[in-house]
Amino acid sequence: MTQEKERGATMVELALALPLTLILLLGAVEAARYVSLQQAVSTASREAARYGSTTGMGAAGVPHYVDCGEIRDVAQDVTPVGLDPTAIEIGYDSGPATAIGAWCNDVGPYPDPSLIARGDRIVVTVSHPYESALPFLGDFLSGTVSATDHRSIWKAES
Fold first, then answer.
1. Fewer beta carbons within 10 Å, N or C terminal of the chain?
2. What is the pTM of this model?
């Protein structure tokens, strides 16, 4: 009779501890997924801005800082997340607290290089949707993960 009581108590303990343990484990996995996506998006924006701030000519024969297609390709190549090219925004400003004066794809595939002065900054924002893999948390943890990076443009004096 004593062994049956001990076995019953063990089953009750398991019934109480197992759901809590599974919720904690699934929460840790979900948090890891979110942090991984945030890191991938941040890396994509940083590397794209880094490429766009360098001197030199891109494959299309235009300076790196206005080669919008190549800047987007760099963002997509550095991350395993399938980034939508339309979710990669590329703009230019004159420094902190200034408005973005030009955007990639405003007119044609490249902005006019003469509109961008040496020392202006390239601003790259990358966004990607995030949805929870857990059905009971989907409404709370879904949204968009985004990251923005700014880099000063190194442009040859004209």
1. N
2. 0.79
